[in-house]
Input
Amino acid sequence: MSNSTDNLQKIKSSLKRRSRSESRFRWYGRVAIIIGLAAVLALFVDIISKGHGAFKATYIQVDIHYDGDRLGVTSSADKSQLMQANWDALVKSGLREKFSDVSGRRDKRQLYKLVSNGTGFDLKEHLVANPLLLGETESQWLLADDDIDTYYKSWLDGEPYDARLTKKQIQWIDQLHQQGDIRLQLNTNLLTRGDSREPEQAGIYGAVMGSLLTLLLTLMLSFPIGVAAAIYLEEFATKNKFTDFIEVNINNLAAVPSIIFGLLGLAVFINFFHVPRSVPIMGGLVLTLMTLPTIIITSRAAIKSVPPSIREAALGMGASRYQVVLHHVLPLALPGMLTGAIIGMAQALGETAPLLMIGMVAFIVDIPQGFTDPATVLPVQIFLWADSPERAFIEKTSAAIMVLLSFLLIMNISAVWLRKRLERRW
Amino acid sequence: MINKIIPVVVLTFVALTGASLSIARENVEVVGSSTVYPFATVVAERYGRASGKPTPKIESTGSGGGMKLFCGGVGTNYPDVTNVSRRIKKSEFDKCQKNGVKDIIEVQIGYDGIVIANSIESTPMEISRKDIFLALAAKVPGEKEGELIDNPYSTWKQVNASLPNVAIEVLGPPPTSGTRDAFAELGLEGGCKAFPWIKALKKVNKNEFKSVCHTVREDGRYVEVGENDNLIVQKLKANPSALGVFGFSFLDQNADKVQGSLIESVEPTFESIADKTYPISRPLYFYVKKAHIDVVPGILGYLTEFTSERAWGEDGYLAEKGMIPLPEDIRKTKAASVRALTPMSGKEPLK
Output
């Protein structure tokens, strides 16, 4: 009797300590989550605060007179005339008219630097789209140079950065601002153009297309191969030392640093099969090697989760092994396989290291139109921009990261949604 | 259904790969130095946009890596042009010859200065190449002549009494970088030669001379920050007592954050690098395979654009990007010889 009251006493006295240690343990968990969330939040705040500016660009309003005589263009349909015309002269005369008091060669040169050096080409494209403009005058918003853009944005924020500008240029911008002829506008170049060395003309469309083509090929190759391997290993292969060995190797491959796959691709596909460098085919092949283990592992897990009773029932009804797999196991395991494939693709989308070896880390301006055009991918574009000396690329880099993150987010959300939507529980 | 899809996928893939192998390349392929990359890309883009032809593709592989690819052989699987932030080496030239790359056109495009900068918040440094060598070399001359000791200096004042009493901390590129090669050759070796007995060593034992003069200390005073010069600029801003080593174009773009140190009382400016009074500057080159010019249509246009006055001239767009142009008379003669497609004779004094 006394023994049991003793015990009760002991339990009661230790109860407080035990519940304290439990609540302490819960707090450890909460702190861990808070640290994780804070890190993610810090990353997002940093990137968004740096990158939001890149979605706007500075434009300057100038009257452009499409003077056929000056251009040497008599018909806006004649391609060779358009090619040879001096488009920069249009921009220059427009600027000179706007600032008629500017004289002297040096000052004029400073003046011409207000607008992007690609403006002439923009005007050409505008005239081709609107042939009736030849000989007419139109007031147009011209893209400003990146130095002007950086200055104007920092000036609007109250901390002007003027080291790259001359006093005169600052004065001109002031004048434009008072006249309302300089403004921030949606930066369409960012989403519709390829890479450029002029920050104001640079866009990520080329890299997005490159990523799409590469990923499409990766999916086309790695999903069927991965699923076939998983089905064979799970449903047909006999368990012996050899299949164990294969399993260990697949798990091992999933943990191999991705640069190794790049080296493998270089040795096998480029040096042996002479696949050209820097093309989506090459990128797709290397990323296939990289994502295969992930897809095989997730597909096998999905097949394993199909209850044996379904297979037995089908076999009992007289179905062959092949019919069991194709008619019953595969449809039930497909949602899990798709989720695995999407996660593998998301991994491949963010990969740069293996692409370094196969020449996809390159400066490519033209938008890739097919699997054999030179291309680069989004994360590589981010890397290249982060490494550029021009200051305006800092915000471009963050903007490209935002685009990449949103793609990843979409892919991961759709993986979760697919699982929720299609998964069946037994 | 699935057993019908699989062969289709396989066939498409084989067809795609097969097609790609037989297509002749239309765009120029350029590889090479990360220092020349910012300039070569601008030219490529301008050329592409103005001509309406495919834009040359430019890979930044580093000077050595680019040469290796370039000298691999002749044919569309090998690059057409390689950029180098130093002159081609004798060994590389021989390798090219051995692999059938016989006619190589050499183009010197301009100069790049290497600056030693610190944060604008601290006082500007005024140092000599000798100070740089003593502060950064792994081994420095001891008391006796001919003696080398492990670098004992931990502050700039110990190196040279006229310098501030600040700990030596220099952020710079890793050994894989061309900037580092040039820094070792022009900065460290330049300071090294201030000691007569080490200078005499060059004639006796070239390898030992190189190992004395080019080896950077590894006790944490010289910090390798990777190939990203923007990162060095950011770190200098956060740490005003540190110095950083990078290319002039980054100083040019970040004048509100960092300032260049005076080397032997010369400030790194556009003019001082161009007239060579600034001691740490290096020539930039690119090399073209003559055999490819008839095969890949864009090479000639790219070459002409690069050597045009509006690109590499004093007021050209490359100067705006931070490249220091060649003197005018040299530009003229070089442009003429390049456009005549004169290959290297093999008798150039290569190292």
